Amino acid sequence: MIKTIIDKLLGKEPAARARKSRFGKREEVPASVHGIDPQLVDQRAVDVVRTLKDAGHEAYIVGGAVRDLLLGLRPKDFDVATDATPEQVKHLFRRAFIIGKRFRIVHVVYGRGREHEVIEVSTFRAFMDNSQAEQVSGNERTSKLALASMKHAVDASGRVLRDNVWGPQDQDATRRDFTVNAMYYDPETQVVVDFHKGIQDAQKKVLRMIGDPATRYREDPVRIIRAVRFAAKLSPLGFKLEPKTAKPLLECEPLLREVPQSRLFDEMLKLLQTGHALASIEQLKKLGLEHGIYPLLDVVVERAGHPFVQAALADTDRRVGEGKPVAPSFMLACVLWQDVKQGWERRLKKGYHAFPALNEAIDEVFDQRIGDVSGRGKLAADMREIWVMQPRFDKRTGSTPFGMVLQARFRAGFDFLRLRADVGEIEEDLAEWWQEFQAADDARREDLVAQVREEQRQKQKAAQPAVRRAPRKAEDVQEASPLDTIVSEGDAPAKKRRRRRRKPAGGADMASSGGSAE
């Protein structure tokens, strides 16, 4: 009591209130209030939580999954937070892998092949004062050896390079980014644990950063991109960035230059491949961030209004909405096709052969647009295959069509062709032919190829030069007009007809007398 009075006289806040303002107040919200439908919760995430709790640990579904559940959406990914260390988590599951350096987390894997699912498990982290963290002069790459032995480290700008200090749940909530992403859901008790009024912000449709936004962006500049992504994803539901959260975005954008290119590349793909590509581009323009985040993203934003690129982005959004898989190689192949096409045409005009010209144009685009991030890996190989397939679609006779449909990337190449037809870049008939060919049986495929062969034969026949037969009489030959002989451009000139020699009366041979044939 006396201490409280003294604190008031000195203008200090009571210790309890200071703690509340920093780490928030724990609120346990029952199902009758939050209304989450348990049927929307992935049973594998429930299994991870149950396994951890059976081993004596705290465990909750956390983050964006809880936010989506509150909004009545079915989350695509489920993350779990626990007080167990990564090593303890790994020990509890048969297929679990510790990944990451900046943040050490565990991937618990269910299933195999394309049908597998990953539940990401993170350990509660302590809220650390970055001014007391170890500092390095370089970045992740230049300070790799020094960072290996550090648990909490920042660079010269205050960007966190290591954050692997474990702590209590309330501190873990405080170090998360947005209030609507900092809630914890126990699928067994169906209680939501909320420290920063995330449920209220979800009801108000507000995206609010926990703590001082500018400071949080300096800690991790990638939060700038995350702010854009969440605003784009939730804008159809009426969500908006809180003004204080949005205000520092533009002035903090230069901090992204210190972030590794590979991480920016991954964040760009999240912007464009989570089902809200067009909305993300709209948000970037609205917030003044359309240039400077990442060079390749600048190209996407710049070309988003082009019919072909716009169709590709809309198609990606549609596929994600339908639960279908999407590949970054396809979307980027569409965005950069303009560059490839121009480089290809330029080389053809110089007399290059078609396929060497195309491959040189592709190499040039990789060097200029993608660089070393992913330009020489599987991504580039898939993009190249999509592009190289395009001129091969024109050949629909012989064995080529049968071999094309057997290629692993045929469907991506055809979808690319389909988009080109949709925007009028190629004839619609070509796309329709390949649509029918790939779905047909062998007999029908043979018929389709035969039809093309016959059409080509008819066209060649119609294109052949029509040469009129020269008259037999000498007087007709002399009076014939040069226009009577039609020669197409590039064909050999017609040969002159000579009159047949006539034998003189009496059977004498004209040739023996040295007479002329004329």
From TrEMBL:
Ranges of residues in domain tRNA nucleotidyltransferase/poly(A) polymerase RNA and SrmB- binding: 238-298
What lineage does UniProt assign to this protein's organism? Answer: Bacteria, Pseudomonadati, Pseudomonadota, Betaproteobacteria, Burkholderiales
User: Ranges for the Polymerase A arginine-rich C-terminal domain?
Assistant: 351-465
Q: Which Pfam families match?
A: PolyA_pol (PF01743), PolyA_pol_arg_C (PF12626), PolyA_pol_RNAbd (PF12627)
Q: Which residues form the active site?
A: 77, 79, 177
Q: Which UniProt keywords apply?
A: ATP-binding, mRNA processing, Nucleotide-binding, RNA-binding, Transcription, Transferase
- The question of whether Secreted is a record keyword is answered with no
Region annotated Disordered sits at: 451-518
Q: What is this protein called?
A: Poly(A) polymerase I
Enzyme Commission designation:
2.7.7.19
Q: Which InterPro entries match?
A: NT_sf, PolA_pol_head_dom, PolA_pol_I, PolyA_pol_arg_C_dom, PolyA_RNA-bd, tRNA_ntf/polyA_polymerase_I
Comp. bias intervals (Basic residues): 495-504
Give the SUPFAM superfamilies listed for this entry.
Nucleotidyltransferase, Poly A polymerase C-terminal region-like
Q: Which reaction does it catalyse?
A: RNA(n) + ATP = RNA(n)-3'-adenine ribonucleotide + diphosphate
What Gene3D superfamilies is this protein classified in? Beta Polymerase, domain 2 (3.30.460.10), cca-adding enzyme, domain 2 (1.10.3090.10)
